[in-house]
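Recap quiz, item 2
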Amino acid sequence: MSDPFTILGGGVCGLAMATELSSRGAKVTVIDLKDVPGAHACSWWAGGMLAPECEGVSAEPDIVRQGRKAAAWWERHGATIHKQGTLVVALGRDHSDLATFARRAPAAKTLNRDGIGAIEPHLAERFSKALFLPDEAHLNPRETLTTLHERLEQTGVTFQGKAQGQMIDCRGLAARDTLADLRGVKGEMLVVRCRDVTLSRPVRLLHPRFPLYIVPRGDGVFMLGATQIETGDRTRATVRSIMELMNAAYALHPAFAEAELLEIGVDARPAFPDNAPRIRQMGDRIYANGLFRHGFLLAPALARMTADLLLDGTTPEVWYEDHRQR
Amino acid sequence: MPTFYNTKVTSRLMLGTAQYPSPAILAEAFRQSGAGIATVSVRREAGGEQAGQDFWALIEDLGVAVLPNTAGCHSVREAITTAQMARDLFETNWIKLEVIGHADTLQPDPFGLVEAAQHLTDDGFEVFPYCTEDLVLCDRLVEAGCKVLMPWGAPIGTGLGLNNVYGLRSLRAHFPDVPLVVDAGLGLPSQAAHAMELGYDAVLVNTAVAKAGDPVAMAQGFARAVEAGALAAQADPMDPRDMAAPSTPVFGKAFL
């Protein structure tokens, strides 16, 4: 049995870390502000898309490569994974954006109206051209965090104990108190209920000004996200942002105009300057942070690499900096 | 190198700071291109004491001149308020003034622009107006105190290049002493080179660099094109002609 670990933070980063370490036999304590996962963690507000190919359009290849392993990890640890792929659409005048996207996401298959109709009938009347990423998946972040928390409790991970052993700081943006180069990137999202539209998979609407994704949560509920604004503000959703999200949803399908507004969410994602995560050692403490908009996509890889480092002494292939060596 | 409001700049390439994959790539694009001025949108990121500070700190670390803008403002009042906010935040009198008149094309509102420019220059600002290539509008802006003009090449984010070469050329001829910067619409370095060949002083690019698959390489491409075009303008280029003129003298043949 290895020395015990104490994880600070019970968001997706902390819980994935606890899961990885405890599944390898380590004794783990998690310290969080609250007893159960909730709105205080920015992963509570996430889309939950496991979409490495789509993210690869604007993210580094390491993120794609590590992200491809995420769905299997989540499944292994009890999460319900929906493997329906991702559909990417654009309005007629933005078809050049589809061409660019297709070039940068080589796994994308081009669909015509019939092809769209075969998988998302409600969108075929609106869109004549789309891209389909068949191997992508999604999950429900809140269910997943709750499931992970319950499973950890069942396997003997404590959530109320005192800190002992190696500290692993997974506090996200709260770790700004020591990580000077960590910044917040605000995201605003909506949850609506709309009985008139059925979607089976996350849909991304490419738009030069208001890009949007919609993730179906079942029972007519959809998550609409998300803005990406350079500020660490975690509390204020603006009318402009919400209007843009609503407009984009309306452009995707006019039936969203009649949707019931269930929730407006806002939080800030923790990010380093290259928007890639980092494992960093400062003093006695290990920091795993900077998941940016890739919480559920990259938390498994970040947890695995941290566990490799702490349990096996293996330096992670990517995302590791040791500031003592500088 | 051009001088904007008594400040000599280090490069004819200005880069916007929005839409990059990451701040690290943004910083690298500046480093590799040598761009001398960064435009920063104030409006969108503002709204609280701490808002945007981290991002602005990253911009300040670039070590280039910061030109805050009023992007996204649709009214005179909004633009003025944003300019005042920008002056406090960045401690500069420079303001790139945008007053958008048409939501779809993001075309400048010429009437609001002149009004806002007058108000801001009276208030001590040094205004860089984002305008169309309309000669009369530009006259009014200069009368309002603008000492730099920033006509569009094409609507923002379209990458269509120089839509009205005639208009841009006559603007240059009409304002030989006012620094002119093509702002908006450039998609390729060759278009930036063209603007410089017309005798423009600088270009401002954002989307074409930020949304390229490799923004750093594209920023370098623009930097070289801008340099090439500026050299060409200084070199007094030949005028095109219809008849072929052999560059090597051909002996022993009669005149054609």
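The two ends of chain A are 32 Å apart (CA to CA).
The domain at 86-134+183-271 of chain A is CATH 3.30.9.10 (D-Amino Acid Oxidase; Chain A, domain 2).
End of item.
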